[in-house]
Design brief:
alpha/beta; Nucleotidyltransferase, domain 5; two-stranded antiparallel ribbon; globular
């Protein structure tokens, strides 16, 4: 039976598309032809990516009445173009290159890519990627750089420990943290050049991280209430709350449901189905690496707590293994964060480690008994005890 769909062929009247490269971009503009009803005018022009050229392009687009500018996410080259056009008041869309597929056999040049992108954009066959507003972008720059410095410091510590092992100095076998107070006192007795350089590098990076922490605190001050509520989630530290806010922003209308946010973060299992048969759940895919890392660390921390999330981790880990359990708990934490950011009055409330035992398990046992009795030919009617 044929059914009516909600498809809408509304055309964006004045649209531009950019194929952005390192030194040059190709700009395609499509606008209505005022002299021929139903026809379109098209202009394709190359611009250098220098600021003065981008400003000239912005002025030209404004003169043509362009309302929406679409570009692909090409490395980091899109950022200065996007930010300049955004500041000029255009509705600026960043789209995933995978969503803009070329037909087989179609020639591929910068000019043709820009024209194709513009034609697809004017028919509203694209969806914009998430680009946070400027305050969140500035916070994100700081939190991401901090994460990179922490990784660099960890790598330097691992090199130092490897050097000690190579010299048959088993410091890590007798103390928990060889870079703590006691460990540093032991290492100070060994004045090898490499070890001294490594320790100096660790100290320098630690100083940089401390300076970044102060800058992050300043930029995060306007969001203090949101960060405090995120900090109540088990496994979420103050630094983790900063990263989550920097990566997903504060405006959850960008993600209509928690499921949309989870899907964007690539924490929802993929679906594999062919010939009407489901072939198991696929991998989650590669999403935001900084968000995934902090959620993984938060999930590992929550797994050690006597909370609902801790018990959920242990139940899943027994059946599916620790790796899948970490992903599942990270997903749960992100869903909680979505609800806290969506509702200004919402606060985190822990269901407790006994939630499953008190609610899920009795219901499951009851249903199992009912099915067994029905299989024996009985009709089961349950009445609660007085």
């Amino acid at each position: 039976m044929l059914t009516r769909t909600q498809d809408n062929e509304e055309i964006i009247e004045r649209v531009a598309a950019l194929d952005v490269g390192k030194a040059e971009l190709m700009c395609c503009v499509r606008v209505p032809d005022e002299d021929h009803r139903g026809k379109r005018l098209q202009e394709v022009q190359a611009y250098p990516t220098m600021t003065r050229s981008l400003v000239r392009m912005s002025d030209h687009l404004a003169c043509l009445g362009v309302t929406r500018v679409v570009m692909e996410a090409t490395s980091d080259y899109w950022k200065p173009v996007f930010y300049l056009l955004e500041a000029a008041g255009f509705e600026t869309w960043l789209v995933n290159a995978k969503d803009v597929k070329h037909l087989p056999g179609r020639p591929k040049t910068d000019k043709l890519d820009a024209v194709w992108l513009c034609k697809v954009a004017e028919r509203q066959m694209l969806r914009p990627s998430f680009v946070p507003p400027p305050p969140i972008r500035r916070l994100r720059d700081l939190t991401r750089y901090r994460a990179d410095l922490v990784a660099a410091r960890t790598a330097e510590k691992q090199r130092a420990e490897k050097l000690l092992e190579d010299a048959c100095i088993k410091v890590s076998a007798v103390i928990t943290d060889i870079f703590g107070v006691s460990g540093r006192d032991m290492l100070a007795d060994h004045h090898a050049f490499l070890l001294g350089a490594m320790l100096a590098r660790v100290d320098a990076i630690s100083a940089d991280i401390a300076a970044l922490d102060a800058a992050i605190a300043t930029h995060a001050a306007p969001f203090a209430d949101l960060i405090a509520r995120l900090d109540e989630i088990p496994g979420i530290s103050l630094a983790a709350a900063h990263v989550i806010l920097a990566e997903i922003g504060t405006d959850m209308t960008r993600f209509p449901t928690a499921g949309h946010l989870v899907s964007w973060a690539r924490l929802a299992p993929g679906i594999k189905e062919s010939a009407g048969k489901k072939k198991g759940k696929g991998s989650t895919g590669h999403g935001n690496a900084y968000l995934a890392a902090i959620l993984g660390n938060a999930a590992a921390g929550a797994a050690k707590t006597d909370t609902f999330l801790g018990e959920r981790y242990r139940r899943i880990a027994r059946r599916r293994g620790s790796k899948r359990a970490i992903v599942a708990i990270g997903r749960s934490i992100l869903i909680i964060a979505w609800h806290l950011l969506s509702d200004p009055t919402a606060r985190f409330h822990d269901l407790g480690p006994g939630y499953y035992a008190a609610r899920i398990d009795p219901e499951r046992r009851k249903n199992n008994h009912i099915r067994q009795l029905e299989a024996l030919g009985y009709t089961v009617t349950l009445e609660p005890a007085a």
